[in-house]
Amino acid sequence: MSIDRETETGSNAMAAARGYRRIATEEAFATAEMFELYRKLLAQGEPLDRGFHSLWGFYLGSPSDRARRIIERLQHLDEQRISDMDASGIDVQVLSLTSPGVQIFDPATAVSIARSSNDQLAAAIRKHPERFAGLAAVAPQRPAEAAKELERGVRQLGLRGMILNSHTHGEYFDDPKFWDIFAAAEALDVPVYLHPNSPSNELIGPLLQRGLDGAIYGFGVETGMHLLALITSGVFDRFPKLKVVVGHLGEALPFWLFRIDYMHRATVASGRYAFLKPLQRCPSEYLRANVFVTSSGMAWAPAIRFCQEVLGIDRVLYAMDYPYQFVTEEVVEMEHGPDSIEKRRMFYQTNAERVFGIAPPAN
């Protein structure tokens, strides 16, 4: 079934014909006011956050076609985005504020911009309820207020979880001072999407020197470390019902399960690190019980099927990574193989409906 034919016929009809909807679960947007504040930060000169300046100094300052197209598409929450969805056979996008979101700002600004961004996102969803769902942005700089904004986003705005764009000024969420945010997510029974950020100042040096600080490698290094730190900190022992979603097929952690379990067990037994404590389970069990992974930016069937095998077919969700990796032919990667219609339906539709609380289509 061709992408062109799907565009002609319409999303609902083609979803019915193929037997499932395609729900893309890591799709970015940005607001004009946030970009204006980004430009002001970039204009201040000496960077306080080297990764932010590397990433957004390029996208907001480069004349390249790639940078221009991405900046334009990030700010579209209407016909242009839906046209792109139709052209690539995407029925629903789960939208979240692009990285680093509000986590680069001072606390007061972060709180204000998170609230404004959530309001704008909710308005777009109300306008296109069959095509968009969304995740709330919060300001971890003030954890208690972040928890309140998540509750407002879920209960009042109808958002489906929370986006955390990894570190906040070099601080990571394995620090218990942030755990009010996880308590709120668990109480509301909504997922936390742990999205990459550029590596923090302490991590970025050799990566930046070699042009590897971004999506090619540095994002995965930074976010894979962050997820593993959450596990080893005991966050899932403290919040056993917490659900965390991670893109890019789990930032490589599924491929390290055996070694992570072995070395965690050996290191805890040795007493080498005071902060590495025994857990109620081995690390791989938390990845299978509390973590979901999406295929964002990783449209490669062998790797997707490996994650389905080692984590479970109910733990792997489809994502495109729009607009950063807007490649229409990648959408159907998992439809060119031996998988059953039910397995495809789980990957593209029903896993996302269950994790994000998205209502199935009406019969």
Topology summary:
Elements: H1 3-9, H2 11-18, E1 23-29, H3 32-42, H4 50-59, H5 65-74, H6 79-88, E2 92-97, H7 107-127, E3 132-134, E4 136-137, H8 143-155, E5 162-164, H9 179-188, E6 192-194, H10 201-209, H11 218-233, H12 235-238, E7 244-246, H13 248-251, H14 257-270, H15 283-289, E8 291-294, H16 301-311, E9 316-317, H17 341-356
Parallel strand pairs: 1-2, 2-3, 4-5, 5-6, 6-7, 7-8, 8-9
Describe this protein's structure:
The protein is an alpha/beta fold and 363 residues long. It has a single domain, classed as TIM Barrel. Helix content is 50%, strand content 9%. It is built from 17 helices and 9 strands. The chain has a 6-stranded parallel sheet.
